[in-house]
């Protein structure tokens, strides 16, 4: 399955550094045009949107971006308001905060705001998401599930924004022990890649399908396409997952990986 990548995505595993070097957020600013760029912060995932928006405005301004606008979308009607549409159209970079990924798809899906985000994606504008904002970028997103021994019914999934095809994303990855549920997600559809991203870590995916890792942690890629033995489709008594073989790629800062070829390009 060829991964659908035709935009410019910065997918962050959550809890990115906001006080010190801020490598990931500085990278986002550079991709959005630097000090002359215009950033639109979408707090739609958060239930404390005012607090969340204010925090990111302060961080981005401290890092040198003078044009930062926050858009709060509390209901689907607001997703069509003139101010929302204007902010999204004028933005050179769009940033999704954390919170609940179902709020992103539930409040944006099928709206004018979502259409403009898709247009921005095809125009190669940088679109970033952290935590829940990261999970929502794929065709199908993980919305919950146990993080211990993976069992068939221990994961919940839902449609995402569809900016990244052929992959499913999990965040706060090592910190919350989510390898089990990512393996289960990959087992449920071996054609897709599982992408798990640690906190203060990001992957930058360009329109050629090449992924580069930034930050202090790791990104893990689960490739179950070569699996020949799995019990994920078995019915009856619930059993822990078995899956063999499965390929794991563990990537750290500076590592480059081709989503299209499913191979590492350097180390």
TrEMBL record:
**Any Gene Ontology biological process:** proteolysis
| InterPro entries named among the record's database cross-references | Class_I_gatase-like, Peptidase_S51, Peptidase_S51_cyanophycinase
EC identifiers of the protein = 3.4.15.6
Q: Which residues form the active site?
A: 131, 172, 199
User: Which top EC class is given?
Assistant: hydrolase
Superkingdom of the source?
Bacteria
The protein's name is Cyanophycinase
Q: What is the lineage of its organism?
A: Bacteria, Bacillati, Bacillota, Clostridia, Eubacteriales
